[in-house]
Amino acid sequence: MKKITSTNQKIIIDLFNKILISYIPKNALLKCCRFCIFRRFINTRKDRKIIKNISYKEIDSSSIFSSIVNELINYLKNDKQLVDDKFRRKVFIVDKKTLSIDVSYCLAVPDCPFCSTLPKDSMNLAEKNGKCILNNLNQAGMPYRFRSSRYWDKILENTVLDKNLGIITTLLDYKEKYFNNAVAILPLLDGRDEPGTGRTGRLESSRGIALLEAMERYAGFYPKGKETTVYESYNQLLKKVSKKHILSIDKYILNQDSIIPKKSNIFNFDKKQKYHWIWGYDIVNRCPRLIPETLAYYGMTLKNSTYKKEIIAYEISNGCSTGSSLLEASYYSLLEVIERDSFLTYWYMPHRIDKIDIINLKDKKLQSDINIFFEEYPDFALSFYNISNDTRVPVILCTIKRKKVKKDKMNFMCAASANFNVYKAMFNSLHEITSIFNGLQKKFTSNINSIKAKYTNLNNIEKMEDHSLAYGYYQNLKYINFENNVARMVTPEALTTKLDEEGLCQQFKFIINTFRKQNREVIIVDQTTEEMNKINLFCTKVLVSGLLPMTFGAKNARISNLRKEDITNYFKENITVKYLPHPFP
């Protein structure tokens, strides 16, 4: 039910060297209240971890600033645009040191305890989303991206980017000699900054992709579009809900099921313990499913530290993506799940692969980017491999390796991409590397002594960047043996199927039918936030039963014997599991 304010509300927040001023007229929607403005402002501060629970006060009437405040309040009372077309409330920000006055616009906090109007999560809502995706699958000519990254650049810059009250506080351009990238900074409640990165090489496109990736992270940490309602143990749920509507936990590879040796596992699923559950939709079996909230969202402890006891597996933004529809977002989420599984199954279970011939490529844009790469990095060899597996979607691995090994420099890096267009997958994987490599190389060089000490033992790998830095170290190059498993040299055209030309819907159906034959579940979780809904941007997370999820940290790997059997049967090879941490960036 929408909340209405029955009286005029002056919002005056005197905090540090700023005064935040806004106004809510009588009988107006109480959307974006005092608490929302306070919380958004605090979250943009560098010291937010320390000050997030600070109390604030209204300005004293005797203050020398009171006349400025009263004048601005009177102005707002007569303002016809207190809430703009993007549902943001106008806020004046007075700098007490300089007396400058800025105008910002603030979005309501989705889970605000005072003015939130989020719908309750339910089976019906999940079923509605699932049917929407299925209906869209029957549309002819569905584009891969309904709206371009340049479109989202403009929309998101004008909606969520603001240094004082924004969801995203900063958008940085990195202009290299050849490869231009962008980074959007998402401030988190725990004081960290989460980057979203655009890696197209074209600054205009990179900015939009960076903003979209930051919004994807924002959506993936904890629910901001629905209110979670189910809190039960698995055993109790069985008494209340049909078993077909509960996620088959045993089909998913958790840390407790992983076959890695000497693991120090702190994550377990207990069927007697209470968990929060949210609704997703199994697009293969066309059935709503309850999923542990910490499996669908990877930052629940940011919302409440008590969720720590509910974490049942190490999770990241694996299988999350944004799009202009639930179908579009789900398609790219699926491709990411497949990309990571293909990389991990090859790394942990080495099998034969193809090497791609990059001489005389027919795609002139890719050929140009490869030529530019050799100009920028003349000391490196560049290779592309086909590492596709039984998911039957082309997955391309790109590697760069220093021709003459240097002990104090980064010597190796790799990245992968899944796409039915093999040239597009090659382009994406190459740009993933070029966007990160320079920054990693600088970090490697400045920390060479600690790197030598740490990465002589690969079990010391803990954080995401450790994986790339460890395999950039010359002594670990002996573990990089892609060339040893090359069975044949192929052209990109040899890997291309007719599905490349048949469009998003046909490709989506192909993937779903493949997983149906393999008896896999494909669970789509709608992570779309309230703010995204208002601009028709959608975010989903996809979980596929049995596929290897991406993890970071040596002890967090999740590998199953069943996946080993799948790969053994598909390649018809005698496969041995390699328990080394992966080099994925």
TrEMBL record:
Superkingdom as given in the UniProt entry: Bacteria
InterPro entries from the UniProt entry: YcaO-like_dom
Protein name: YcaO-like family
Domain YcaO: 196-585
Gene3D superfamilies: 3.30.1330.230, 3.30.160.660, 3.30.40.250
